[in-house]
Design a protein that fits this description.
Chain B: Keywords: Membrane, Transmembrane, Transmembrane helix. The complex is a heterodimer. By secondary structure, chain A is mainly alpha-helical. Chain A is built from twelve helices and no strands. The longest helix of chain A has 29 residues. Chain B is extended, with a radius of gyration of 20 Å. Classes of the chains: A mainly alpha, B mainly alpha. Chains A and B meet through helix 2, helix 3, helix 4, helix 5 and helix 6 of A and helix 1, helix 2, helix 3, helix 4 and helix 5 of B.
Chain lengths: 259, 110
């Protein structure tokens, strides 16, 4: 049965496979993109500037921030500065994907970087770490598929303006659920669970401390480095520790191929 | 102060620069260089740490960067439901869709 599914997947057209791979993000981008377009419209953006910002910035969090800061008439340099702190975490995404994108051309790297964000990174990271045949080109097309859904939703939102009302906090939970899913599939041993809990507390502490999303960057750097050091020490001094033992997976999904 | 379209365009270009640089620089740096082993081992912990931080931000941190659980009961309960669904089904689509349904229904009840 598994073989049949694999075979029928091979026969699917290429764009269909990319769409399937990116569908969870595509679908959650529709309501969030609409809401974002509506908010940008309310803060004075027209259809063309909405198109421009959704293609060039392509980050839900950043675009919501732009909309809310324009509503409070903050000076331009402060909007851009806040944007810088918000987008700094993408450096971490790039670093953790770098081993899969090693040796690609300059143009490809720039194009890939331009439309990478939290959500399509989540999709691509999972694909790269579970599917050995997944190529950088496919990853780029996954990015562009999510970008297409995001941009179209933004523009429709901008066009319908304030005619409909969307409860943002509820819609935003689609992305929270996506990140929760990503966490759960990566919890492969006790140490990762401990690091995950530690990261949660560090994130709250650093965000309150810095009063900005710079806290996200600091807590991620700290928690991941502690995880890396802890794993190295446990392997060295307690090689039989139960912390590194694999946790059984109830659904029996494929194991990581890159270890 | 009402901004005009020219200012919006400049704002977008500025935002593009600060958004593009952090995305590009690490990928450019490691494009041709050999990536050290310890760096790859460190980077393996980045996704789980970052996603946890994003979830904590979404659920427990207010827009003014204060930790708060006021009115967050629907999201907190729905988060537990999503963790359960993700653990048992391992399906991203089912987790997201049922999570959205859960938070929508809980927001009406709680």
């Amino acid at each position: 049965m598994g073989k049949n599914i694999a075979k029928s997947r091979e026969q699917e057209p290429y764009w269909r496979r990319i769409l399937d791979a990116s569908l969870p993000v595509d679908l959650s981008y529709i309501p969030i993109g609409l809401a974002c377009g509506i908010l940008l419209n309310a803060s004075g953006f027209n259809v063309w500037t909405t198109l421009m910002v959704s293609v060039m910035v392509f980050s839900g969090g950043a675009q919501f921030l732009i909309a809310s800061l324009l509503a409070t008439s903050a000076p331009m340099y402060s909007v851009i500065l806040m944007m810088f702190f918000l987008e700094l975490r993408y450096a971490l995404l790039g670093s953790s994907l770098s081993k899969y994108l090693h040796g690609q051309s300059l143009g490809f790297t720039a194009l890939f970087a331009a439309s990478m964000n939290d959500e399509n990174y989540a999709l691509n990271y999972l694909k790269f770490s579970t599917d050995k045949k997944f190529t950088p080109k496919e990853a780029l097309h996954v990015e562009h598929m999510t970008l297409a859904f995001w941009t179209v939703s933004n523009i429709i939102g901008s066009l319908i303006g304030s005619a409909i009302h969307i409860d943002l906090t509820i819609v935003h939970f689609a992305l929270t659920a996506l990140f929760l899913y990503m966490i759960v599939v990566q919890l492969k041993n006790g140490l990762i669970i401990l690091i995950c809990i530690l990261s949660g507390f560090l994130a709250a502490y650093f965000m309150v401390l810095t009063k900005s999303t710079l806290g996200l960057v600091l807590s991620t750097l700290a928690a991941s480095f502690i995880g890396f050091m802890a794993e190295a020490s446990i392997r060295k001094y307690f090689p039989d520790s139960s912390l590194l033992r694999h946790i059984k997976n109830p659904a029996g999904s494929p194991e990581d191929v890159d270890e | 102060m009402e901004w005009n379209t020219t200012q919006h365009v400049w704002l977008i270009l500025g935002c593009f620069c600060v958004a593009f640089a952090p995305r590009l620089i690490p990928l450019m740096f490691f494009r041709t260089r050999k990536i050290p082993n310890w760096f790859n081992e460190w980077m393996r912990y980045i996704p789980v740490s970052l996603f946890t931080a994003l979830v904590v931000k979404d659920i427990f941190i207010t827009p003014d960067y204060v930790v708060s659980v006021v009115n967050r009961a629907p999201e907190m309960i729905a988060a537990v439901i999503v963790i359960g669904i993700a653990y048992w089904t391992r399906s991203m689509a089912i987790s997201v869709v049922l999570g959205l349904c859960a938070v929508f229904l809980l927001a009406m009840v709680v």
